[in-house]
Amino acid sequence: MEKTRLGGHYLEKYDEELEAIRNRVLSMGGLVEEQISHAITALGSGDVGLAEEVVQNDMKVNGFEVGIDEQCSQVLARHQPAASDLRFVIAVIKTITDLERIGDQAERVARMALQLARKDRPKNQYADVVSLGERVLAMVHGALDAFARMDVEAAVQVARSDVAVDNDYESIMRQSITFMMEDPRTISRAMDVIWAIRALERIGDHARNMCEYVVYLVKGKDVRHISLDQLEEAALGKKPG
Amino acid sequence: MEKTRLGGHYLEKYDEELEAIRNRVLSMGGLVEEQISHAITALGSGDVGLAEEVVQNDMKVNGFEVGIDEQCSQVLARHQPAASDLRFVIAVIKTITDLERIGDQAERVARMALQLARKDRPKNQYADVVSLGERVLAMVHGALDAFARMDVEAAVQVARSDVAVDNDYESIMRQSITFMMEDPRTISRAMDVIWAIRALERIGDHARNMCEYVVYLVKGKDVRHISLDQLEEAALGKKPG
Question: Looking at chain B, which residue has its C-alpha nearest residue A84?
Fold first, then answer.
């Protein structure tokens, strides 16, 4: 938060409010990470109870979004934050939108886990899907960590790992379509897998968005809609190579 | 905007800035509507040039998002808006996130139009997909209109129409999967259609989000993550019957 402000009771309360928001975003992030983790475990193991729990818990994620948005509005109205504090509040408003949508995608994976639990399981027990899930979970964890530590370098690194996620996704997608063509009886199952990996791929995109807000927060630069190389240059001030 | 403020040079400039933001959101909305419209026309007619234009123009949509976000940050920093003005700025920050993602989905439809243009066309020329596209375009138009006129009643009506969009989507989805099972040679085409209708269905969701921000803006109530009946009651203060 701003280091240049004077102390005093009023400002202490202000700092406390910003700190409370920060902690609540991290709690929301922790819940969302748990949702992803449970959803992919349920998919890999066919654990129906765990999948149902994920579906149930999505409303908790939604509750966080509404509550944190309300806190941000109050801070804006009461304290008129400026400079880096204002960027912090804006970054939070955007981050929790992505976190909430990551929660929706985790719920979607859990719903596909429920569908797949009723069907014959392939020999590999969806190991490739689980591995993609672990990759995107690591991205979300990394993005939250970069946010907590305001670590631009880590944010850039996490954003870069989205490329590997997209590659994994494309590879499972191609394979699923091949299976469908070879044996139309697998179409229904392959479609469930496709929706699950699509949801996981979207989680990677949202994690990348969160990394862009970290750069905005720390550097004051809007780095959306640019290439990864441009992002790295804007964030770290060096040409990647 | 706030009606209770005193006049004067400073506040006139403030009002002008809020009005400029409002107009820019509507311009962004107009561009996004055009993108959806062109994408579904391209898909229905197989017009490759038009589809390519949509893909190209997505960066204009992105540019609007970045520019409006910047204007909002400046207004927050310079004028410390309160009450309904603050809600307006927050509603804009959220609305343009959805508009930008609608733009992404329109681009996705255009990319599927490019894929489908190379393949045999079905007898109905994708009339069902085009009709779904027209429905979601009407939703986006209605949501922008409700925003421009701060019309809560219209916002509720548009949100309600998302149900019909979801039904259309489910119906085309079931049919596509049936076609795939009956004739695996149609799998590749059916998958393109599925990605296109999925993108259109997501546009409907984003339009519904925009309607929720209109209710927040006008009524100061957060109506996300609740049922349509609860939304109507919160927005219009009456039990739907």
Answer: B77
Q: Is residue B171 part of a domain?
A: yes
CATH of the domain at A214: 1.20.58.220
> CB pairs under 8 A, 24+ apart, for A71-75?
A71/A17, A71/A20, A71/A21, A71/A24, A72/A21, A72/B90, A73/B86, A73/B87, A73/B90, A74/A17, A75/A14, A75/A17, A75/A18, A75/A21
Q: Are the beta carbons of A90 and B93 separated by less than 8 Å? A: yes
Say how many domains are in chain A: 1
pLDDT digits (tens, 9 = 90+) for A72-86: 999 999 999 989 999
CB-based contact (8 Å) between A116 and chain B?
A: no
Q: Which residues of chain B neighbour A177 with C-beta distances below 8 Å?
A: 187-188, 191
Residue A4 domain flag: no
Nearest CA to CA, how far is A49 from chain B (Å)?
24
* B105 found inside a domain: yes
List, for residues B9-38, the tens digit of each pLDDT value.
677 889 999 999 999 999 999 999 999 999
What's the domain range around A86?
A: 9-236
Query: Is residue B73 assigned to a domain?
Result: yes
CB contact under 8 A, A184 and B184: yes
**Contact call for residues B232 and B164 (beta carbons, < 8 A):** no
Closest-approach residue (CA) in chain A for B87? A73
Complex ipTM: 0.91
Give residue-wise pLDDT tens across range B144-157. 999 999 999 999 99
- Whether residue B221 lies within 8 A of chain A, CB to CB, comes out as no
Interface membership of B225 toward A (CB under 8 Å): yes
Q: pLDDT category, B2, cuts 50, 70, 90? A: very low
Residue of B nearest to A77 (CA): B82
